[in-house]
Amino acid sequence: QVQLVESGGGLVQTGGSLRLSCAASGSISSIVVMGWYRQAPGKQRELVAIITSGGSTNYADSVKGRFTISISRDSAKNTVDLQMNGLKPEDTAAYYCGARDLHWNWDWGQGTQVTVSS
Asked: How does pLDDT run across 1-26, given as a tens digit for each residue?
């Protein structure tokens, strides 16, 4: 099992920037994909961005060109960051870090709130 701890959420004005960080520990050798999902009130959880162990990335159309996902590794943990620029009110949501293994099992962090004021 993988433990995930997120940080970096907060309140920002439209057009501002935030950087989310997620530290993964535990069975990190089993991770093949890490990513960020978000859930706004009354809506389903949706993909924001993912990155594979090989470095390939995928973004939701709504964040392309504004958000950048990156990953760093050491022997004890993986850290995946999400740099969010040009934030919009519609980006307001709880953001969750996830990690998937070869068997498509997902582990999730506790979530961090991002609020963009207009």
From this structure: 899 999 999 999 999 999 999 999 99
